[in-house]
Automatic annotation (TrEMBL):
Name the record gives this protein: L-2-hydroxyglutarate oxidase
Coiled coil spans: none
UniProt keyword annotation of Cytoplasm present: no
Keyword Oxidoreductase appears in the UniProt entry: yes
Source organism per UniProt: Belliella buryatensis
Record NCBIfam families: PRK11728.1
PANTHER family, sorted: L-2-HYDROXYGLUTARATE DEHYDROGENASE, MITOCHONDRIAL
Entry GO MF terms: (S)-2-hydroxyglutarate dehydrogenase activity
Length: 399
């Protein structure tokens, strides 16, 4: 059977893309292929549930424009579908004087990105927002919130199906073969003929992209595991909402922070360590083929040479609860090692180019047969409907 569009990947971006296309052109025949036995199992189902405001991103970048547009679309969608969320606000806190210029830069970016109400707060005001938090300077961002993204993604999927879209679970794409005018997508169960592939494969997006183009890709997905602890129930009072540190401007991760969860509880983390398997949620998860591909990538070798000190620190925190606690104590001095119980972990699909650049922005590449979403880490969940709209506009130009 010939489909107009096959979307590979049943995470939040793939589902949002299918929904956006169906809303605009319901007559198109579209299927989403997901290799797992459920939707939103990987990055979508293992993130911290933060509704990002667009504070950190370079004005005019895909991350900034899609995060801010996606934020408003997400809130509207949750209101329409009765999905619970909270706009909690967050504080970003400098714990050392040398971080203040970076904090000021983040504040300026927020203003440039239209985050009205974001403001510098006094240390007394910081205590009002987060009584147990310590720092030398802080800003408050009122727009940040929390939601259960798995619930959001499943709602996208239901709406997509109501509009006539099809979802095939347990269909892992093995190869694609482009012929004149259409492409054959072969899964572990059957084949699909399609006029266009949209690749939202997340942790395997580079592998899927390599299937649909002749030249070798100039980016590779490097999997970084983020490990979390949770605060014991009796110590959750230490965090009212969301507390973030000033991020390292050279490292594309936000640092360990505190997040009150929509499902209840408070998460502390994540760190950012190299995963030895693309879907390696535990330290013991190893795939030698995938690990050797990562280590052999020239871009990763350059990243490792540049960030080896940061990397060792993150790895040390992975194995040492005391070191993890010490990092958290910079924000909340009262936190003790005994307050923390092991939480979950997520794996971030971080695109890395051949020259050692960790792609900071979303990356969407087109060729004759496919649209490949090659880099869509955080804030992709917040931005999902806007990314879906962006991809749908590229797709619909072809029909």
């Amino acid at each position: 059977m010939l489909y107009d569009i096959i979307i590979i990947g049943g995470g939040i971006v793939g589902l949002a893309t299918g929904l956006k296309i169906k809303e605009q052109k319901p007559e198109l025949k579209i299927a989403i292929l997901e290799k797992e036995n459920e939707l939103a199992k990987h990055q979508t189902g293992n993130n911290s549930g933060v509704i990002h405001s667009g504070l950190y991103y370079k004005p005019g970048s895909l991350k900034a424009t899609n995060c801010i547009a996606g934020y408003h679309q997400l809130i509207q969608f949750c209101d329409e579908e009765n999905i619970p969320y909270e706009i909690t606000g967050k504080v970003v806190v400098a714990t050392q004087k040398e971080q203040i210029p970076i904090l000021n830069g983040i504040y300026e970016r927020g203003l440039q990105n239209g985050l009205n109400g974001t403001r510098h707060i006094t240390l007394d005001e910081l205590k009002e927002y987060e009584p147990y938090c310590a720092g030398v300077a802080a800003i408050h961002v009122p727009q940040t919130g929390i939601v259960d993204y798995k619930q959001v993604a499943l709602a996208y999927g239901e709406k997509f199906k109501k509009l006539g879209g099809e979802i095939f679970l347990e269909h892992e794409v093995k190869r694609t073969n482009s012929l004149k005018g259409y492409t054959v997508v072969q899964t572990n169960k059957q084949h699909f003929d399609t006029k266009l592939i949209i690749n939202c494969g997340g942790l395997y997006s580079d592998k899927v992209a390599q299937m649909n183009q002749e030249e070798e890709l100039d980016v590779k997905i490097i999997p970084f595991r983020g490990e979390y602890y949770k605060l014991k129930k009796e110590r959750e009072y230490l965090v009212k909402n969301l507390i973030y540190p000033v991020p390292d401007p050279n490292f594309p991760f936000l640092g360990v922070h505190f997040t009150r969860m929509m499902k209840g509880g408070v998460e502390a983390g994540p760190n950012a360590v190299l995963a030895f398997k693309r879907e390696g949620y535990k330290r013991s998860d190893v795939n030698l083929k995938e690990l050797s591909e990562t280590l052999a990538w020239p871009g990763f070798q350059k990243v490792a040479a540049k960030y080896w000190k940061t990397g060792f620190g993150e790895m040390y925190r992975s194995f040492s609860k005391a070191a993890f606690t010490k990092a958290l104590q910079e924000l909340i001095p009262d936190i003790q090692e005994s307050d923390l119980v092991e939480g979950g972990a997520g794996v971030r699909a971080q695109a890395c180019d051949r020259t050692g650049g960790l792609l900071d922005d979303f990356s969407i590449k087109e060729n004759q047969y496919a649209i490949n979403v090659l880099n869509a880490p955080s804030p992709a969940a917040t931005s999902s409907l806007s990314i879906g709209q962006t991809v749908s506009e590229l797709a619909l130009k072809r029909f």
